[in-house]
Amino acid sequence: MSGGSARSLAKGSAPPGPVPQGLIRVYSMRFCPFAQRTLLVLKAKGIGHEIININLKNKPEWFFTKNPFGLVPVLENSQGQLIYESAITCEYLDEAYPGKKLLPDDPYEKACQKMVFELFSKVLTNKKTTFFGGNSLSMIDYLIWPWFERLEVLELNECVDHTPKLKLWMAAMREDPAVSSLLIEAKAFRGFLDLYLQNSPEACDYGL
Ligand SMILES: N[C@@H](CCC(=O)N[C@@H](CS)C(=O)NCC(=O)O)C(=O)O
C-alpha cells in the first residue's frame, strides 16, 4: 500500500506544522486497514493530500490532541479542523470535496449502504449486484475492501472459495485504480504483523 513511505513519527517527535493550503493531511499507519479506507477515498476522488505516519507502538504525545482516542486515521485540514473515525472521515471527504460522488444522493440508497456497513462485521448481505452498492463501485466497497485484501495477503482466501460472488467482487475491486494503487505488499504486511504482535516499536516502519 502506498500509504506514505516516510518513517512514522514517534514519542518525542515535534508536532507537525499547519497543513498547507490546498492539501488535506491524513495521520495514518502504512498497514492500517481503517486508514486505507480514508486513503482509498482520497485517491478515488483525486484529493490532494499529505500523509503523516504515526508510530502506533510508541505514539507521539501530541497525537492525542489530534484524536483523543489515539487512533489512526485522522484528517486535518488547513483550517485546523480534525476528523477521526474512518467511516466518518470517508463521508466527510465525499461531502466536502467535488468529483466522483461515492455515497448515493438518494436517502434510501444511502441508508442501505450504511446498513450493509453495519452488517459487515457480522455477516455479509446476499448481494445481487457486482458491487455492494449496485452495479458500480461506491463507498461501501471501499469501506470493506481492506479486510478482504488482507485475507489474501494472509493466505486465508479459502474463506471466500465457497462464495463465487465474493470472488468476482474481489477481482472487480482489483481493477479499480484507487484500489490497485494502494495494494499492500504481502511480504511487508506479514513482516509488520509479526512485529506488531510482539509489540515492537519497529513494526509500523517495517521494510523502510
Ligand atoms: N474505529 C476506528 C478504528 C481505528 C483503529 O483501530 N486504528 C488502529 C490501527 S489499524 C490504531 O490506531 N491502533 C492504535 C491503538 O490501538 O492504540 C476507525 O474506524 O477509525
Question: Strands, helices and their partners?
Answer:
Blueprint: E1 24-28, H1 33-45, E2 49-53, H2 63-66, E3 74-76, E4 82-84, H3 86-96, H4 107-120, H5 139-153, H6 164-174, H7 177-181, H8 186-197
Parallel strand pairs: 1-2
Antiparallel strand pairs: 1-3, 3-4
This protein binds glutathione.
Structure description:
Helix 1 runs parallel beside helix 3 (about 85-95) and helix 4 packs parallel to helix 5 (about 140-155). The protein is an alpha+beta fold and about 210 residues long. Strands 2-1-3-4 form a 4-stranded mixed β-sheet, with helices on one face. The protein is globular and about 50 Å long. The chain starts with about 25 loop residues before the first strand and ends in an 11-residue tail after the last helix. It has 8 helices and 4 strands, in the order E-H-E-H-E-E-H-H-H-H-H-H. A hairpin with a 5-residue loop joins strand 3 (about 75) and strand 4 (about 80-85). The protein has helices at about 35-45, 65, 85-95, 105-120, 140-155, 165-175, 175-180, 185-195; strands at about 25-30, 50-55, 75, 80-85. It has a domain at about 105-180: Up-down Bundle (Glutathione S-transferase Yfyf (Class Pi), Chain A, domain 2). About 40% of the residues lie in helices and about 10% in strands. The longest helix has 15 residues, at about 140-155. Glutathione binds next to helix 1.
